[in-house]
Description:
The chain has helices at residues 10-23, 32-54, 61-68, 73-86, 90-128. The chain is mainly alpha-helical. It starts with 9 loop residues before the first helix and ends with a helix.
Amino acid sequence: MVRPEDRDGPMQILLAISLAASIGLSCGATEPAAQKAAAQGEWVSCITKAVSRLDDGRSDAASVAAGVAPVCSASYQTMINAMMCSADTAQYQKSLSRNAPELEQKLATAAVLAYRAKTRQQQVSQAGN
């Protein structure tokens, strides 16, 4: 039974992924590796745009990530599903399913930090010209 507190946020993603894994994923006719690469590209594009819009450059990176991750949650779930379709073992699928919410936050935080590093690098380059 799904508890009320589990219906929102990361638990919703985890439950959806778990349900997809338990009933069998609809991986489609596309080659799993190509599907995975396309989904990853879509999420990276989404998260990069969201970070560039929402990052003030001063707030804690994890706090910014917590704000931007929901913006791209649909593309993140598509990416996780594609990764599960390309998984070669049930153990990997279970691990991915179990760790998906935590991984989303870590990846979003890494995206914030990468954006900030790129921004600083661009500022240094412009100052040197």
